[in-house]
Amino acid sequence: MGPKEAEAELQAQADIWKYMLSYVDSMAVKCTVELRIADIINMHGCPITSLQIVADIPDALSLNVSYLKRLMRLLVRRKIFTEHHPSEGGDTKYGMTHLSRWLLQGSQMSLAPMLLKETHPRLTTSWHTISHCIKGGGICFEKINGREIWDFASENPEFNKLFIDAMACTARIMMNTILS
């Protein structure tokens, strides 16, 4: 195998690893929205430390700060937040980016509702049946949940609200784009 082939093989392996673990990014961003991390940093108006984030997370009984720091490192690598290291030691501070602004829950231009819908266990679990649906027919959501998404939503008010909020957020974004 020549150097170009070896490089192509190595890149192929890296790509498969990336695809295999890409769900981690989705779950990390979901966690960010659930904990309202972007909202907390935005509320402060400047970069803040992980301890300042922890102090403002609602309903936090016993937060795992080391997990939060790991989460923030991943989100910084994904350019969702910025990282600022003080020159004299001190704690790392995290700031907003163009990406994190799309996660603000109170914003008219937010993708947070769509992200929460798309990462909902009822939808993500459906993807586990795709090979069965390809081989034997059917719709993934129905295979897992026993009914169409519309029927499921009509019987589950919490899921229905999540679905409606997601559709409303995308409609606002599309309408803004059209008007622009």
Please supply descriptive tags for the structure shown above.
mainly alpha; O-methyltransferase dimerisation domain-containing protein; 180 residues; 3 strands; 2 domains
Describe the secondary structure blueprint for this structure:
Blueprint: H1 3-35, H2 37-44, E1 48-49, H3 50-56, H4 65-77, E2 81-84, E3 93-96, H5 98-101, H6 112-118, H7 121-124, H8 130-136, H9 140-145, H10 149-155, H11 157-179
Antiparallel strand pairs: 1-3, 2-3
Helix pairs in contact: 6-11, 10-11
Percentage of residues assigned to helices: 55-70%
Order of helices and strands: HHEHHEEHHHHHHH
Largest sheet: 3 strands, antiparallel
* CATH C-level category of the largest domain: Mainly Alpha
Derived from helix and strand composition plus strand pairing, the structural class reads mainly alpha
Query: Strand fraction band?
Result: 5-15%
CATH superfamily of the largest domain: Winged helix-like DNA-binding domain superfamily/Winged helix DNA-binding domain
* pLDDT averaged over residues: 93
Count up the domains. 2
- The coarse overall form would be globular
What do these coordinates show?
The protein has two domains: 1-107, Arc Repressor Mutant, subunit A, CATH 1.10.10; 108-180, no CATH class. Helices cover 66% and strands 6% of the residues. The protein is built from eleven helices and three strands, in the order H-H-E-H-H-E-E-H-H-H-H-H-H-H. The protein has a three-stranded antiparallel β-sheet. The mean pLDDT is 93.
